[in-house]
User: What shape does this take?
Amino acid sequence: GTACKATPFRPSVRKQGSKDSKFKPKKSLGQNFLTDDALLQSIAAAARLQPGDRVLEIGPGKGSLTQQLLQAGASVLAVEKDARLVKQLQSSYGQRADFRVIEEDFLTLDLSQASQLHPAKAHGRLIAAGNLPYYITTETIKKLLPWGHTFSALHFVIQDDAAKRLVSPDASEVRAINVEIDFYSEPKYLFKIDKARFSPEPTVDGALVHFELRQPSEYLLTEGRTSFMKLVQHAYLQRRKMLRKSLESLYSRAQLDKAQERLGSKCSLAARPQELSMAHLVHIFTVLQEAKHSTF
Ligand code: SAM
Assistant: This one.
């Protein structure tokens, strides 16, 4: 009997991935794909898209989430850095009028172009969504937060530990980024996604987070926001120090004295950043700016 030698064992499972077998995911681009349609559908559903809404999808990969977003009635502008995937997306969805893919690094994308580049000119909400490559999570969120005049919400799959750090940090873990998030948005942790659901499997679990962006006027006018963020960054750079100490590089001693007089004891410059609510911080900022421009 030589029959055994002649027919090598070929598991039929192999065949399933054969179309894709030449594709080697790049770790450096954070390529961990989601393939479970039911899960992808619930990710898209949680964005509560209405027909006519527009999505800027970051890192569409092979288009598994894209498909669910389109199915929900949204039009999609997809930004993908990997040329191999751009080609694949182009051939799967390129014919559709409600889809466009551009080959670009999201971090260098000019957001003021997002609306013009979008395939649909409809006036639904514009939402940024995606199963993000983990290495650009923080930068991506920071980049989009101040764009409440253009984007209604951010809807991202990120690492679970990052999701917790960004959305619900312990009081002692609050960083400048958390203040920025609270200032610009209402953040929500929606649900955890087990690492086994990704392919290839990453070392940590993921989670779906949602940031409903505020309109810029809700707290401060646009020009004030950059200066306010500077104050927040300075305050949290040395978050165990009194506000007054950390702000010495931004305001003169006379300005700080003047502001302290105006503030009284309730929200003193002697406080540490963690002891202050967002409303307190904004109030302190307003008084400091007035002191700087000597309006009292
Ligand atoms: N959305 C797909 C899914 O859920 O299966 C893929 C998600 S995968 C975690 C991240 C995707 O982002 C990859 O396709 C990767 O090539 C792409 N990517 C990585 N860095 C990027 C960047 N700077 N700008 C745009 N896309 C990027």
User: Anything to note?
Assistant: The beta strands are 33-34, 54-58, 75-80, 99-103, 126-131, 153-159, 185-193, 198-199, 206-213.
